[in-house]
Design goal:
The protein has 7 helices and 5 strands, in the order H-H-E-E-E-E-E-H-H-H-H-H. It is an alpha+beta fold. It starts with 5 loop residues before the first helix and ends in a 19-residue tail after the last helix.
Amino acid sequence: VRSAIYDLVVFMLGTGCRISEALAVRWRDLDLVGVEHEGRHVAVAYLGPVIVEVKGKGLVRREKGKTGASVHDRRVVPLPRFVVDMLVLRRPEWARDDDPVFPAQSRRRGKQPTSGVGYRSANNVDRAWRVIRERHGYPWVTWHIFRKTAISEWKAMGLTDLQAADMAGHKQVSMTQNTYYGRNQLHPEAADRPGYDKA
């Protein structure tokens, strides 16, 4: 909680995004009221841009992420209820639409910053997370594990490989299949096929 990591973990588990994408999300990139789809409203996040460190400029929000080349290539990811609840509680009254959802921490914790809100460095976040995971005996739980967990959950929920690849931001479905789905698993449903009658 002190490192402001908890909400970031929740967001990544709910969206399957990359850490650099999560740190680039602004409040204007979220629609918590939701877009209408087949008679219901679905809360969504528009993902794609990333936070990168540029020599001589510091942290920069780059519109061209891994997913595509422009704002028109951003992907729309539906937000689970647990993510929406976290975001509603997280947004301070003074936040502007262009402010990052996961900003660099202000020295005046919980109060409005006096000099604007900046983006958080992926290196600093990773450093804080490394201390936490090693302290609790889970050194293998990297940020990528949260992404992989979310994508695996989509598969378990019955989403098609194409749908999962779209939400993950993979240009090739084979990337999703080969890298993010569990392999060498037991598939008990194979035991349910009918037998053959003796001739």
